[in-house]
Amino acid sequence: MPERSWWRTAWRRPGVWGGALLALVSVGLFAQLVDGVLERGDLSGIDPVVEQRVPALRDSVLNVVADVLALLGSEVCLGIFAAVLVFWVWTQWKDRLLAAVLTASMAVTAGLIVGVKDLVGRVRPAAWAVYGPPDPSPAFPSGHTLGTTVFLGLVAGLVVLRWSSWWVRATALGGWVLGSVVVGASRIYLGYHWATDVVAGLVLGMGVLALTVVAVDLLRHRRPSWTPAARGVDDLA
Predict the structure, then answer these.
(1) Rounded CA separation 42/33 (Å)
(2) Domain count, the chain
(3) Model's pTM, two decimal places?
(4) Which CA distances in Å does 13 have to 19, 22, 94, 183?
(5) Other CB atoms closer than 10 Å to residue 165's CB: what's the count?
(6) 145 in a structural domain
(7) Nearest to 43, CA basis, from 176, 127, 140, 152
(8) Residue 147 CB partners (closer than 8 Å, separation 6+)
């Protein structure tokens, strides 16, 4: 009976139905973006315009900033950051289930980056529009944007779970949004991606995070002891 009751009440919790709804919306928007890219219509109509105008905006300072952001949002750096985050949750919070969920989210993200790029097979902007060495890999979606959106979203989610201070939570959420946007913008600025590649990365990243929320909520209520006591966290701030 308790098992059946758990499944019966699972979809009544805001984290579950809210996350599922956001995931469905994200999938719908992403499908629309894919359709536009394949048919060269809809929102993808702005891509040639952006490609033409971006090179005129470049200067020496912004070039350096964009290069740094591109490095921080690369697969290698995000992989290192994610490993450190998982290690911290595993060893300091003693929360192996949460560490597993974080690992799964980043693994799914990496799989989506490779899989969707290969399926869509979109060619990147012209070589003259690129600031840096050419990249022969497919363009859609922006892996930097997708990876950064998911990773920073996971960090923000952990902060929201473990800190009660509203300004700490607001700072984390603001950092997530700002970080995702500026990394995405750097990819357009450097000429490696079309604008809709970045939008697709943001949308798909939101979908992954939404499903992560669903998984966390289900597992958290399935095992009440899932969330350990916070260590070194000022929950009363």
Answers:
(1) 8
(2) 1
(3) 0.86
(4) 10, 14, 26, 33
(5) 14
(6) yes
(7) 140
(8) 73, 75, 78, 106, 109, 110, 113, 205
The token duo for 132 is 């840096």
Domain containing residue 90:
15-226
Residue 234 lies in a domain: no
Tokens of residue 230, six digits: 């916070």
CB 194 within 8 Å of CB 47:
yes
- For the stretch 107-116, contacts whose Cβ atoms lie closer than 8 Å and that sit 24 or more positions apart, written own/partner, are 108/208, 108/211, 109/146, 109/147, 109/150, 109/151, 109/205, 109/208, 110/75, 110/147, 112/146, 112/204, 112/208, 113/75, 113/141, 113/143, 113/146, 113/147, 116/140, 116/141, 116/204
Tens-digit pLDDT profile for the chain (237 aa)?
Answer: 445 554 555 555 666 767 788 889 999 999 999 988 888 777 778 889 998 999 989 999 999 999 999 999 999 999 999 999 999 999 988 888 899 999 999 999 999 999 999 999 999 998 888 998 888 999 999 999 999 999 999 999 999 888 888 899 999 999 999 999 999 999 999 999 999 999 999 999 999 999 998 888 777 766 544 444 444 433 333
Per the domain annotation, does 161 fall within a domain?
A: yes
As given in the structure block, the two tokens for residue 70 are: 């591109």
Q: Are 90 and 99 in contact (CB under 8 A)?
A: yes
